[in-house]
Amino acid sequence: DYIIYNQELVPRSEATIQFDDRGYYFGDGIYEVAKIYEGKPFAMDLHLKRLRSSAEKLDMAFPFSETTMTELLLHLLQKNNVKNGLIYFQLTRGVEPRNHLYTRKSIPVFTAFTQPSQDLKDMQKNGIDVWLTDDIRWLRCDIKTLNLLGNVMVKRESADNGCQEAILNRDGFITEGSSSNLFLVKDKVLYTHPATNLILNGITRQVLINLAKKYDYKVVEEPFPVDVLEHADEAFITSTSVEIAPIKSVRGQLSANFEVGPVTKDLQNKFKELLPKGE
Ligand code: PMP
């Protein structure tokens, strides 16, 4: 198993990181996770675009081009012989002595590794239970940063309550999941939070919205109050790792139950058709 450190492939067992990396002591960095199907990354162009946008929002330089980055990542997939799985890649602001004030002189450190993806069959077919709790994150959730404590803490809270995902309530409105975006369905119309500073604009979210519109579903991107959950026909989450997972129950600040409905199933099937196929 290999990893990438800057522009080199290194055996994982020999890989080291620098003690003075800002990513290590400030979480000063950004990342992406892309999914690999039959050896091919899905929507890599969108992931690279979002990484570039996260870098710009954080005044962080790119150490080399997207083309070089893609070549490196594809090389890693080949070397690790990944057919189906996930590729994680990140950029930190680089190595310099600890000081809140960054100098703009450090060179961002690029690292990447691959890992297996979880088995999704049961989740996608039967759905998940989600835990509604307060959104305790900062106000720049649109940036995919390494700083994930708000997400990490609510994920644990949801698991401790027997749920697979936390759904977040900011001032009475639903933003998204701890590592996913949320959609509601009512009378065949899809509802989801708009891509503002309060959510991460998921790649799966973007792909799904385009797909739904192509098949003449109406998509409303507006914030909705938490109690709307009680009146929805269907609900589901989206993310690179789970794709589309129906919600069967909401617990915590509010209770609601859903069937795995026809719109969710239809979109799951249409989404599967977009995924890279084997030869
Ligand atoms: N929101 C948050 C907070 C996330 O961490 C993620 C990704 N893990 C998503 C949404 C879904 O984004 P994507 O579809 O790009 O995986």
Automatic annotation (TrEMBL):
<dbReference type="InterPro" id="IPR018300">
    <property type="entry name" value="Aminotrans_IV_CS"/>
</dbReference>
<dbReference type="Pfam" id="PF01063">
    <property type="entry name" value="Aminotran_4"/>
</dbReference>
<dbReference type="GO" id="GO:0005829">
    <property type="term" value="C:cytosol"/>
</dbReference>
<dbReference type="InterPro" id="IPR005784">
    <property type="entry name" value="D_amino_transT"/>
</dbReference>
<dbReference type="GO" id="GO:0008652">
    <property type="term" value="P:amino acid biosynthetic process"/>
</dbReference>
<dbReference type="GO" id="GO:0046394">
    <property type="term" value="P:carboxylic acid biosynthetic process"/>
</dbReference>
<protein>
    <recommendedName>
        <fullName>D-alanine aminotransferase</fullName>
        <ecNumber>2.6.1.21</ecNumber>
    </recommendedName>
</protein>
<dbReference type="InterPro" id="IPR043132">
    <property type="entry name" value="BCAT-like_C"/>
</dbReference>
<dbReference type="InterPro" id="IPR050571">
    <property type="entry name" value="Class-IV_PLP-Dep_Aminotrnsfr"/>
</dbReference>
<dbReference type="InterPro" id="IPR036038">
    <property type="entry name" value="Aminotransferase-like"/>
</dbReference>
<comment type="subunit">
    <text>Homodimer.</text>
</comment>
<comment type="similarity">
    <text>Belongs to the class-IV pyridoxal-phosphate-dependent aminotransferase family.</text>
</comment>
<dbReference type="InterPro" id="IPR043131">
    <property type="entry name" value="BCAT-like_N"/>
</dbReference>
<dbReference type="GO" id="GO:0046416">
    <property type="term" value="P:D-amino acid metabolic process"/>
</dbReference>
<dbReference type="GO" id="GO:0047810">
    <property type="term" value="F:D-alanine-2-oxoglutarate aminotransferase activity"/>
</dbReference>
<comment type="function">
    <text>Acts on the D-isomers of alanine, leucine, aspartate, glutamate, aminobutyrate, norvaline and asparagine. The enzyme transfers an amino group from a substrate D-amino acid to the pyridoxal phosphate cofactor to form pyridoxamine and an alpha-keto acid in the first half-reaction.</text>
</comment>
<dbReference type="GO" id="GO:0030170">
    <property type="term" value="F:pyridoxal phosphate binding"/>
</dbReference>
<keyword id="KW-0808">Transferase</keyword>
<keyword id="KW-0663">Pyridoxal phosphate</keyword>
<keyword id="KW-0032">Aminotransferase</keyword>
<dbReference type="InterPro" id="IPR001544">
    <property type="entry name" value="Aminotrans_IV"/>
</dbReference>
